[in-house]
Amino acid sequence: PVISSAALQALVNPLLLLLPATIASSFAFLLPTAAPSNVVVLAKSQDLSRPIRFRDFFWNGLPLTLGVIVVGALLTDVMGALVFDSHSPFPQWACSASAASCVFLEAPGVVQGRHVDAQACIVDLGSTDTTMCRLWNGTMLDMTLFQRVY
User: Fold this and answer.
1) Which whole-number Å values give the CA distances from 94 to 5, 15, 35, 104, 112, in the listed order?
2) Largest alpha-carbon pair distance within the chain?
3) What is the pLDDT along the chain (150 residues), one digit of tens a residue?
4) Model confidence, pTM
5) How many Cβ atoms are within 10 Å of 102's Cβ, its own excluded?
6) Ramachandran angles phi, psi of 62, nearest 5°
7) Cα dihedral 133/139/144/147 (nearest 10)
């Protein structure tokens, strides 16, 4: 919810932020509680003459974690762009699925280097003037001048 809200307020494609966060949540190799198999190994090692310690998990998991962070970041960016088109402008489905503060208007322009016929606009619900909204580049727009896209 926090990352989705941040993407909405910045009018950035939510997939650009959500994909890396989702993938990174599985990069836990430093602690024995990272995976159920690690907990079993830690528990069974108590019967050995020298039980495995938390420090052993940390030092063995550190190189793996660092490597996976680098490879995961690169693959998430490349595959996200190829498979999900995560570098595209803010999509209409994200505006429709969000709170009432997001409106999709038929306001042609260039968004993140791409020509669009319609784009998302954020309404400041705390403001007294609810006819004005903010485009991705910070431009304030009068919503009464443009057709809404549903």
Assistant:
1) 11, 10, 33, 10, 17
2) 77
3) 899 889 998 999 999 999 999 998 888 778 888 888 888 988 999 999 999 998 998 998 899 889 999 999 999 999 999 999 999 999 999 988 876 789 999 999 999 889 999 999 998 877 777 789 999 999 999 999 999 988
4) 0.75
5) 20
6) -60, -50
7) -100
